[in-house]
Amino acid sequence: MFIRRTQTRSTATGESYVTYRLVRSERRAGKVRQRTLLNLGRHFPVAQAHWSALCARIEQRLSGQAALFDEEGKGLPLAVERQAERIAARLLAEQGGTPAPADAGGVPGGGGDVQSVDVDSLSLVRPRSVGVEQLALWALRQAGLEEQLQALGLTGPQRAAALGLIVARMAAPGSERATYQWLARRSGLGELLEVDFEAMSPMQLYRTSDILLRHRAALEGHLFARVSDLFALAPTITLYDLTNTYFEGEAPVNPAARHGHSKERRSDCPLLTLALVLDACGFVRRSRVFAGNAAEAQTLQGYAHRPRGARRRACGHGPRGGHRGQPRLAGRAGLPLSGGQRERRRAVDFKEAITLDNAGGQAVELLKVPSADGQEVRLYCRSEGRVRKEQAIAGRLMDRFEAGLDKLATGLSRRGTTKRIDKLWERIGRLKEKSRGLGQHYHIEVIAGDSGERARAIHWQRLPVKGSLVTEPGVYCLRSNETGWDEKTMWRTYIMLTDLEAVFRSLKSELGLRPIFHHKEERAEGHLFITVLAYQFVQLIRHCLAAHGICERWSTLRDTLAGQCRVTATFNRGDGRTLHVRKATRAEPDQARIYQALGADPAPGGVQKTIV
Questions:
Q1: Which runs of E-coded beta strand occur in 337-468?
Q2: What are the Basic residues biased-composition ranges (predicted)?
Q3: Which whole-number Å values give the CA distances from 211 to 136, 180, 261, 534, 602, in the listed order?
Q4: Where do the domains of the chain lie?
Q5: 518-535: per-residue pLDDT in tens?
């Protein structure tokens, strides 16, 4: 076995180039012939000085020898070892399925493929994860993604890279650089797709990300239409909300990288805003990227005037605590909107309210109040669970506030503590700042001493303000410009916002939306779009599993399936040859339950048997 450098020419372009091939010399009909075992490609990374050692290492791996040193006792470079493992695995895969002849160590009559092997020679090599990959490919094929990519004109390598990017974001979220490392060294996705990701250039992933971004509208339209058909969705409600992610670095060449309010409290970094339009089941209809300092009211106006793909009965659902002008803004654009509204008013008479049971079985009081001009409607809500929650929060913060005042007061009688009146008021101000507005319920006096500059006592009294969280806990307000809705419809629509918030939690914590390591504008948007695509397939899987009573989060499902791997078992046979068997580990009960619910193959990749 040796490596040959060959000059060849492209039949398509006529370009002359050099390629590298793994060749074996064989004697056929009394003549020595050279047979190409594997095309190693144009960019073979191993230096010519190591070719001989590489070929010897490949032979050792094929024959089951586990030695890691050459004859001189010197270890091979790590890059050469990796290439030897990769090439040996490819050779075994291409020769897979070779049956064992009965006269060469096989045991006839034993049922199945029974062979005589040396058990002590067993070695297990090249473990690669396939559980999450198998589930992800099942979802991609349910949605017809491969066919859609082909219809959009992507070549075979580009389609493979696109699938690799999306599946990696589902299984091991990270940057495109981390994705390449995962695909090449940890995942068995290449085996399931019959693609050698180790031979793929990392730049191929970046370029494919750019291509996917250029086809964003077509891909989003295809996927939403597909899931609508699969689940017979009737999208009468549209959910709309924003989140943002931050950059690692300043991203000076990206005009959309702006400083603003970070929902991750990373306002020290430039941000990028992602807007999603979803249906009531949480599937993405379309997405859009805005500058990091974009305001919700501005983006909502852009959505209202660009209802591309929106169905006639669709309506918007605004963000919780939204902008006060949003319902009127949406009304002028012909877009119904509902959302939460932070209001100081809590003193509401619930005598004429209706009572509705929520999903937790608790009663919720609902009072509908139209605006004076009849263009908007407010729905005031109160529930016992919310009352207890806000009472506990208020009690904890007020106890903390009073403990701070007590500490300042007792310090007046000790040496080395703050006694100057101006400094005491500064500390009281900081206590109020930390009390989340509950400091307004206290009347505080600092009593001056004889000098007039130092305090001798601090007195305070709790005086709850009427119509506040302390006196009216558990009351909150919803606003809408859909004045024809009744209380029940407004409430049910608002509850859907919980699902939308779960979407963003999944994007951020489970699918690697944050942070962004790219500086170029299209690469940053491509990173976000791949995350959106990954979420779409995660939602498809979870929606199918929920129908079978499996309602775990994606992170839980991913951890459950992560333990299943493909591994090669190597044995020495009695006739001196080596048997290689590559297959997936048996699905454990929790894994088998998921596969059974979806009708997926519990043994990804099948079985490959090779005798060398």
A1: 337-341, 354-357, 363-370, 377-383, 442-448, 455-462
A2: 305-326
A3: 21, 17, 31, 16, 33
A4: 2-94, 152-336+481-551, 344-480
A5: 878 888 899 999 999 999
